[in-house]
Amino acid sequence: MDNKNEKEKKERSLRYSILDGSFYSLTVGFGESYLSAFAVFLKATDSQLGLLTSIPQLFGSIFQLASNKLIEIYKSRKRIVIINAIIQSLIWIPIILTLFINKYSILYLIFFVTAYKAIGMLISPLWSSWMGDLVESERRGDYFGKRNKITGIIAFIALILGGIILELSESNLKPYAGFFIIFLLAMIGRIISFIFVTKKYDPPYLEKEEDRFTLLQFLRRLFKGNYGLFVVFLSFMYLSVNIAGPYFTAYMFNELHLSYLQYTILMAVPVVIKFIFMPIWGRYSDVYGNKKSLVLSSYLMSALPLLWLVSINYYYLIIIQIYSGFVWAGFELASFNFIFDSTTPQKRVRCFAYYTLLNGVGVLIGATLGSLLIDYYGLFDSLFKSKYMVVFAVSGVLRYLTTIIFIPRIREMRNVEEISYRDLFFKITAIEPTTGILHKMIVIEDKIGDGFDHLEDQLKNIGHKIVDGVIKKKEKD
Q1: d(C-alpha 396, C-alpha 347), whole Å
Q2: Closest CA to 303 of 317, 322, 324, 319
Q3: Is the separation of the CB atoms in 183 and 92 below 8 Å?
């Protein structure tokens, strides 16, 4: 195949990937975002909420190891992704049917969500490797930033509509109907997403014998290579995050007593902020390196759970969620792109699989620690007003410790321009004179102002014409 023809196929596939991601965002907005709320609706305990997060993640991570064997057998990432994508979409049927199970409904939900996650995580390293071959290294930040912006907008719309549907169904005393509708829409979104996946071009995947390495070999070199240290950092970070992560939903419903609509707004705010800032983080990550963005976002992200200790005022929580969307946009994009920078295409499937396994172990340990801290809240009741505040505090402290210990040992993999963290922060947030958010707002305001000035001039001209017409008519009379 000539280079021009392959380049056209890749460009077309990147457009299909945006469509694929856009419809998958419906699944995220209508379905995945409300699984924890669904568990609370089914009267899940705090421990069960922890299991709903940790068990699917752990089993999915283990199941993901099969991706290495599958790619050896089928030699096609596309075929494996297609088969598992349609299976994953159909798993929404038993998740919906959980509504009609009275006894052990939470256990059924955990089982089906685990199956759903396992399929999704099996796809993940193959999809990541596939996309790594489609997107050129120097434009990854820009492409994924734009793709995430589009998918974020759609996920936000789906999330808002899902909240409205749940609020309306609860007001009509039929909350189960709301979950039935939004999960059905989630399944439809996944099916349409699957259709666009089938249209994408899959470049030939060649894995030589020397590119293969076992999990044990990977673990032995974990602290020796840059990628290994990066994986350890992320595993400890997600351990720290998930000490608190599974329990925010329970806190909002059980202690703050938020309505579905209030909960939806809090969940939607960071989604909006993410799709605003993802392209900006991506653009500067391409220029100044993914490590620089990773360091900045890691320190900023560590403060998040601690901010929840300050106040329970709803408008204050919205401000926290705005901050959350900003820092997670940088952390997710930089960490995702750093994996591409640190791995070769031939080893990428295995590297993603082993990384996800260790990440799953971290999630399990974190959620378990969080559950234990909540169960033994009595030891901390003199320090915190709520059992959930204990896990928020511990999560924040461990995030900082993880960042301080591991970040200095990770090095940038590309030759990039130098910039201070202060200047990078100002560029991304608002102060940068040509691309900052405030500048864009000023430009928009100027355009609106120019529009009103033009409209005012047009109205004046019309007024003058009317007056002239009246005068001429009187002179004729």
Answers
A1: 34
A2: 324
A3: yes
DSSP helix/strand/coil, 103: coil
What's the domain count of the chain?
2
| Closest among 194, 33, 8, 19 to 113, alpha carbons compared | 33
DSSP class per residue in 182-197? HHHHHHHHHHHHHHHH
- What tokens appear for 50 in the block? 């922890």
Q: For residue 279, what are the CA distances in angstroms to 158, 289, 330?
A: 21, 14, 10
Do 465 and 424 share a structural domain? no
Question: Distance of CA 114 to CAs 57, 94, 108, 200, Å?
Answer: 7, 12, 10, 28
pLDDT tens-digit profile of 201-233? 888 776 666 667 777 888 888 888 888 899 999
The angle subtended at Cα 127 by Cα 122 and Cα 128, nearest 5°, is 105
Residues 403 and 474 in one domain: no
Tell me how far apart the alpha carbons of residues 2 and 5 are, in angstroms, rounded to a whole number: 6
Burial letters for 101-115: b for 16+ Cβ neighbours within 10 Å, e otherwise?
A: eeeebbebbbbbbbb
Note whether 340 and 460 are same-domain residues. no
Same-domain check for residues 290 and 195: yes
Q: Which residue has the tokens 């109907």?
A: 177
Q: Is the pLDDT of residue 452 over 50?
A: no
| Structural tokens at position 340 | 């591409």
Structure letter (DSSP) for residue 418: -
Check which CATH number belongs to the domain holding 198 and give it. Answer: 1.20.1250.20
Question: Based on the domain organization, do 424 and 358 belong to the same domain?
Answer: yes
Q: CB of 352 within 8 A of CB of 128?
A: yes
What is the domain extent for residue 331?
Answer: 3-205+213-435
Q: How far apart are CA 238 and CA 363, in angstroms?
A: 6
Tens-digit pLDDT profile for residues 249-267: 989 998 999 998 899 999 9
List pLDDT tens digits, range 307-324: 999 999 999 999 999 999
Question: Is-contact 297 424, C-beta < 8 A?
Answer: no
Tally DSSP H helices, then E strands, for the chain: 20, 0
